[in-house]
Amino acid sequence: MLLTPVLFCFNCLTGKVIIAKDVHNMRANNNRGDDTEKLLQMICDLREKEQTTVIPITDESQELQLLYVQTRQMHRMFEGYPEVLVLDATYRTNKHRMPLFVFMVEDGAGSSHVVAYAFVASEQQHVVSKLLETFVKENAKTSDTNVVIVDKDFTEIAAIRESFNSKPSVQLCQFHVMKAFRAAAGQLAHSTEERERLISSFGEMVCAPTPEKFEDAQTDFLRHANAEACAYFQKNWANIANMWARHLCDKQFTAGNNTTNRVESYNAKIKHILSASDKLHEALKGILQLSSALTQEARHRACVMKTCTFYSYEASSDVEARCAKELTPYASSVINKEAAKARQAPPELRQIEATVYAVSSSCGTWHEVSTQTWTCTCTTFSKMGLPCRHILAVCERTSVMPDLSQVVKPRWFKSHHLRIMAADADAEETCDTASHQSTNVELLTMQGQHLIR
User: pLDDT, tens digit, for every residue of 299-352?
Assistant: First the structure.
């Protein structure tokens, strides 16, 4: 066998028979070492120059199991809007096949913000639990997190319930709920007509606005479903209705979010800049650049909000005018739509007490509005934290101006949003001008299913 000059040199130096595969392995090992050095250097730079929180965790074999990343801007945005967290993982973003978890919130202007990233070696529960424990530890405001929205991944659900001290309500993405049921119905139904009937009845349960309508839809489903479909529903859905039925989920403040569409839309942007062949430090650089670009867009919108006056031709009441002045344009648009519904179909009002009114709704139910606490028992008020059509109807009929500090969540005020965005910009400027001493990268270790510092 003729040897190439490279193989001949190795044979002379080692005294062993070395084949081309050995050279390939040595080259791969060298490249792997270079990749590790570049990743460690990037972590050091992020910590020193930008004061980014970067936490790498390895196992006993020094294999990376978790890489948690949160910039100061991300941390600040979560502090401002911690109530609702949307969590999802995306794939094929690096050559190590490490899933990328994205933590996201919605701000007072209705825009999405990433508040943390994490690459994980696997989605086993002990890894995901460690990830969420890290997020909770690094963000004290998780004590104010009331809702976490995920797809139907019970590993994530169990980890959330184990890690969050606030014991948030875990809600399932409505799109994934229907997708999972459609797939099951295709296997359980004996005909196309039966499949469509099952999906329709289940969809009515998901969107039922009241407990009574939910019970009616469930009764209809169980009456027409075959034994296998009934057993499937009872086993997989009936006992967790509070995670997917809107009349229950919407009792919690969700800012109107009932899917993971926000984070999945963002993940689609990630796929445009990353590929399955990217090295980890390249993937990390790419997602941070994307996050920075979207943050700049949000700051621009905040500047426009601060310097411009917004008007709505649909606003016709003093309440709407005041809301347009004090609240973000996004929040004002929600209120304008509620006011329009109240004008198109004026509800019936009954005064129960001096400050309590019963207001009819389009679905045949009645809601109580208190002008003392400025609350309503409808799900629009509970899920949005904004004046609903029932409150607006009471204001219109009684000529009373509501106390916005009571009826509106703080997140929807312009002053709150602009303060968060200004603090975010100031934090970045401080970070750019500060000098920091060089620090080494501290690796945490993971031992089996037990995570140890």
Answer: 999 999 998 887 766 667 899 999 999 999 999 999 999 999 999 999 999 999
Neighbours of 129 (CB within 10 A): 20
| Count of beta carbons in the 10 Å neighbourhood of residue 41 | 12
Half-sphere exposure of 363 (CA within 13 A, CB side): 13
- Could you read off the pLDDT of 131-156 as tens digits, one per residue? 999 999 999 999 999 999 999 888 89
pTM: 0.86
Phi-psi region of 97 (alpha: psi -120 to 50; beta: other; left: phi over 0): left
Annotate 247-300 with DSSP letters as a single string. Answer: HHHTTS--TT--SSHHHHHHHHHHHHH--TT--HHHHHHHHHHHHHHHHHHHHH
List the one residue out of 213, 207, 206, 218 whose CA is nearest residue 364: 213
Neighbours of 177 (CB within 10 A): 22
Q: What is the per-residue DSSP string for 208-247?
A: -SSHHHHHHHHHHHHHHS-HHHHHHHHHHTGGGGGGT-HH
Any idea what DSSP says for residue 442? Answer: P
Pick the CATH number of 51-173+259-299 from 2.40.50.140, 3.40.50.720, 3.30.420.10, 2.40.160.10: 3.30.420.10
Run of H or E residues at 356: strand 356-360
Strand bridging mode 53-59 / 444-447: parallel
